[in-house]
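User: I'll paste a sequence; please echo it back and then give the predicted structure.

Assistant: Echoing your sequence first, then the prediction.
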Amino acid sequence: MVGANRSSNLRRVSLVSASQPYPDVTAVILNWSRLPNVVQIVSLLCGPWLEDVIAEIVVWNNNPREIILSSQTFAKTGCPSEKLRIYNSPYNAYFQARYVACEQATTRFCFLQDDDYLIMPEIIRTLHARVLRTPDHSIHLLPPHEVLSTQLRTTVTPDGVHTSFAWLGHGTILPRAGAVDFLALLHHLNASEDEMKMADNYFTILNNRIPEVWFDQGIELGGGQPFTVGMDGDERNKIHIINAYRYLDTLLSAFGASDISHKLPFIEVDVVTPAGHPIFQAPCLGASCLLQTNIPLLPSHLKAGYSIDDVFVQELRSIQSLGQGAVDHYLQFPPSQAVDGRPDTAFRSPLPARRGDFVGLDMLSRLGSTNSTFEITLLVTKETVDILHHALFESSIDAVHWVVSTRAFVCEKTELSGLRGPRSAPHKLQECSIQLQETDHRFFRASLQVDIPSSPHWMIYEFWIRWLA
């Protein structure tokens, strides 16, 4: 991944240890038509790498007419019977099953996922470490096209709506109390059987909080028959999502934002709507850490919607305003590709670098070793080297108070070639690094201090903290 002169002593730092003396997460997996995938997922969740995070695994079988699951079904996973709970539902409870299973859990948090995705242990550990810092809301892993939809469906109204929609099946961690309150709200609303079954379409919207979403590193497993098939499935989802927005708007209008928190569970009214550009996040693959950046991924003229009438019309108008080229760029160069361990993928900013841009890593715990040497390291294009020469490299214990490094910033050419554009020749990548002054810090970033006349774009192939032996 780097030049030969450095590769002999490369170590990627991954420091997350057990956050507390006992595991506090219940994992919930729904089985429908991909049983081999479920067995594979259970094997991963039950492995030793998550034993201090995952306390119990619940497999909810929504397809008992086809197969009855038992401990023998999962014998090859090696998962002990006291850690694996199997429930053969008498009927297909659809998405509602996730929340019922979470409500019945005894742990503080739940981890939810569908049966067509494999989420690596280091990413689950990153989710867990972060939710411990913000235990009042859910965190959702999403592929780039779904992150884009969540952004474009964001709605903020004068009546107190500040929400958007995000799926849960790509991997979501949430407080158990959130599932309890959500089900209580649906029962209070006398939600119909269909609305209960389609609970995923209501969860983030009724929470009235713009959901925290991360660009994922998920591995698609495929197989079986997906639940949402064709235009009928898409139309069903749209109906319930629009219904959720209308529910929320009606409730806020009827009760008023000041009263609703005292009368109804789950709906947030005091959440401050983020100002300015959002922070985009992506978990590292191959190490437990989290990329964070405020580099804009969409033009500033795209604002949150101000009406709940039809968020899908709002989304379509935004996509038309962006143009297909901008949409393609968003999907092809997401921030997650700067921390996926692959030098053949990259994060590229759609707009030129600007003063105030930053890209950073949360290592989830302090490095904490006075006898070791660490470096902030980036694999980048020459264009990005020019940006980094105008940046400050900073570190922090708490992401509030930052210490600027005064060490030398060094870039060296590598033998690796960057992605080739349609009208450009491949170019050699450079590895840039700066030694850390503070080894007991947790957060590390490069922040651009000036606007650069040549208007270069960020293009980061890899970004990591290196441990030098």
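The chain has 13 helices and 22 strands. The CA atoms of residues 373 and 468 lie 5 Å apart.
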